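Ops channel
N.P.: pipeline sanity check, posting one input/output pair.
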């Protein structure tokens, strides 16, 4: 099982998941977050180590797919755009620790660091938890913000996944290949 850094110490992913209970609606309300007043969302339990789930519920439509640039400095689409509504709750796709929560280029951004060196990025997101907050898989990490993005006039959530400085296709983490049975010989 992987380990991650939290507050300068090393903790297991299971410990981080357990600690995530401290980022509750009561905690968010005490810090003035509108997320505490959002419709109730129950965190999805971890089905198994390393499993990921969609960051929106119910499973959203994909408005724009990942398009890796080649070479990496050329234009591309470094994530996926998911159909969303303004103020819709954004969920952590797997356990991790919030490594950034703030405004970049006029948009609210939340980044969650996951075990194994992966990071999830989300925008536009408002009311994100403070940096250093552990989050369980399926725990709320903010709400879709009203800032128009490249999906305008539609509202969407942009979800990116990185390993180091390399962008990966987020759909590879949530879309399961169909099971195909082959004949025995």
């Amino acid at each position: 099982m992987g380990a991650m850094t939290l507050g300068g110490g090393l903790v297991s992913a299971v410990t981080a998941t357990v600690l995530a209970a401290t980022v509750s609606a009561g905690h968010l309300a005490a810090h003035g977050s509108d997320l505490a007043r959002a419709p109730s969302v129950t965190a999805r339990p971890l089905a198994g180590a390393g499993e990921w789930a969609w960051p929106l519920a119910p499973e959203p439509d994909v408005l724009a797919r990942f398009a890796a640039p080649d070479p990496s400095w050329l234009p591309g689409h470094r994530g996926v755009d998911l159909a969303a509504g303004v103020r819709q709750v954004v969920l952590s796709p797997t356990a991790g620790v919030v490594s950034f929560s703030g405004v970049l280029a006029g948009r609210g951004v939340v980044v969650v660091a996951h075990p194994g060196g992966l990071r999830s990025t989300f925008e536009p997101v408002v009311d994100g938890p403070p940096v250093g907050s552990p989050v369980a898989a399926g725990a709320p990490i903010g709400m879709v913000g009203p800032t128009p993005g490249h999906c305008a006039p539609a509202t969407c959530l942009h979800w990116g996944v990185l390993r180091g400085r390399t962008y990966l296709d987020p759909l590879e983490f949530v879309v399961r290949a169909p099971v195909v049975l082959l004949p025995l010989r």
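N.P.: looks fine end to end. Residues 13-19 form the longest helix (7 residues).
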